[in-house]
Recover the amino acids of this structure.
């Protein structure tokens, strides 16, 4: 029997020889998964019932995998994921909510307020006696929601906890049903705690976010969990005038589908997280919409644009946002498209400039190769 063929390279440490994976087994596994999903044995995590367009945008909901939501200050990132978490819990989906800016008390009050239509902030400040009474009266109903509020440590939330929390959720809910794990938000991910006898690590933010993405992908693959990572927009991509949606060229197809003609303009917007967006299953961005007469002074249009989706092309959904909660857009999306086109500068010019500016540099192409040796958690 001949020995296995290997290539020796003295400049690199010895590694285990590769084995040829079986295409037939991979195909059988894929068909089994497809049949389970068709039979409803594995299902997606639903969005709120009135967000019909968003469900279509995500091919039926959030499927197991790595999902990234990017948004600037004031676009409503936390409000959006809180509503997604509540919708999932109402459908019986276990939800782990890691609030790195919120403590467990604030998470619980926000969920309760959203569930009952009560302004949570006034309740939290003790300024709404009726709201407090309403939450108390529905305590038994609220306690049945499978939402688990996790807090970060004072020294930061290490990426390894994404794995341990996912394992804890799956052990508590061992069926093959969906599980949602939300990390809000990436830019507060901390270093790993030092092991006994070792010095504390000091990775920069980009490395810490890279590690979190690697762990999240591994968790999604091994545990069948949908991991939603929330990221702040980098300062260079801050959407101060609501022009991001115009650059992406949102439109509506003849068959009524929402389409994004320039989705690549929305990839790589996260603060120190742009590279990992290329490795995610979906990448969505919350952008400011145009001012429309159908919105009163208390509301504004915010658009959820999915620039990348492994199962479906790019798409978008407009919402009304009152600063606390999102509601479905009940008018034609064509109204939004026409208003965005009015914001576009003439060809060859940019807003407020008379000279043509050089085109922006293209974002890095291709998937990011994350080095597992760096992320041994």
């Amino acid at each position: 029997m001949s020995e296995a063929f290997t290539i020796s390279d003295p400049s690199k440490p010895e590694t285990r020889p590769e084995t040829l994976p079986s295409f037939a087994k991979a195909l059988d596994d894929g068909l089994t998964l497809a049949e389970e999903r068709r039979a409803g044995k594995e299902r997606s995590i639903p969005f709120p019932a009135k967000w019909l367009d968003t469900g279509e945008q995500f091919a039926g909901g959030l499927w197991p995998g790595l999902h990234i939501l990017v948004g600037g200050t004031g676009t409503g990132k936390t409000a959006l994921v809180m509503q997604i978490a509540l919708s999932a819990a109402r459908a019986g989906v276990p939800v782990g909510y890691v609030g790195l800016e919120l403590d467990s008390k604030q998470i619980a009050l926000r969920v309760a307020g959203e569930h009952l239509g009560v302004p949570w902030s006034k309740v939290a400040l003790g300024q709404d006696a009726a709201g407090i009474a309403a939450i108390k009266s529905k305590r038994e109903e609220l306690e049945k929601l499978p939402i688990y509020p996790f807090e970060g440590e004072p020294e930061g939330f290490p990426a390894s906890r994404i794995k341990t929390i996912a394992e804890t959720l799956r052990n508590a809910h061992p069926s093959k049903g969906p599980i949602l794990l939300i990390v809000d938000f990436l830019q507060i991910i901390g270093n790993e705690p030092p092991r006994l006898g070792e010095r504390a690590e000091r990775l920069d933010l980009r490395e810490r976010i890279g590690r979190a993405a690697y762990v999240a992908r591994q968790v999604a693959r091994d545990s069948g969990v949908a991991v939603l990572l929330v990221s702040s927009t980098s300062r260079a991509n801050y959407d101060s005038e609501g022009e991001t949606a115009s650059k992406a060229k949102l439109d509506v197809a003849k068959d009524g589908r929402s389409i994004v003609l320039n989705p690549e303009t929305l990839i790589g917007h996260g603060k120190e997280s742009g590279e990992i967006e290329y490795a995610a299953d979906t990448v969505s961005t919350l952008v400011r919409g145009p001012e429309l007469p159908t919105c009163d002074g208390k509301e504004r249009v915010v658009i959820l644009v999915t620039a990348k989706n492994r199962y479906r092309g790019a798409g978008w959904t407009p919402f009304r946002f009152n600063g606390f909660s999102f509601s479905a857009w009940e008018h034609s999306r064509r109204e939004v498209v026409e208003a965005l086109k009015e914001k576009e500068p003439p060809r060859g010019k940019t807003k407020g400039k008379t000279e043509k500016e050089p085109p922006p540099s293209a974002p890095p192409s291709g998937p990011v190769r994350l080095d597992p040796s760096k992320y041994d958690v």
